[in-house]
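worker-3 :: picked DNA-binding response regulator
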Amino acid sequence: MVQQIIIADDHPLFRAALRQAVSEAVPDAEMVEVDSIKTLQAAVEEHPDADLVLLDLNMPGAHGFSGLVFMRGQYPGLPVVVVSGSEELQVMRRSIDYGASGFIPKSAPLPEITEAIREVLNGEVWLPAGVAEKLDRMQADVTDFSDKLASLTPQQFRVLGMLAEGLLNKQIAYDLDVSEATVKAHITAVFRKLGVRNRTQAVIAIQQMEIDPSDTSLSGS
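worker-3 :: tokens ->
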């Protein structure tokens, strides 16, 4: 059976690099490329039997680890490997804690990315050399909020992302092509699932998923 691999990154040049790595790891793989959380959701729905997602943490529609947490909650059987510009151990630790099957720094050479893809497709968890031992000595970093976030439906997750961007109900309704009443119903459900009472609390809550903004190594992640 032909393996399907989804490449989720909003940088065309790096998508090309990942495409080359996938071609070398799995020569006959079928690849799907997306550049946002919205198009990633559509791709997963269109390809429910996909074998792997290579996920950039900071794509449009995602707030740090929120995209990873959402994917693991909605599609637990689909392996997700984080591909990031960060090489911070804490970012790697949180990625694994939130369910990633591996972590590939964008600085990794092509043969290493190819090896990582092969190992994850074989059921292994892949990390850069020497990192696993360091992460074992670090405290796990999973919050109760991640479980709540993972319980959101795809549409509720999209609404939450738009709330975090400061969009009004009317704008959300237009973008999603639904009524304002439907948007209000989604917002009510989001508040209930997250255990918050208003937009401000919801935005503060999802900021828990953000990568430390003081981490300058994340530029271009």
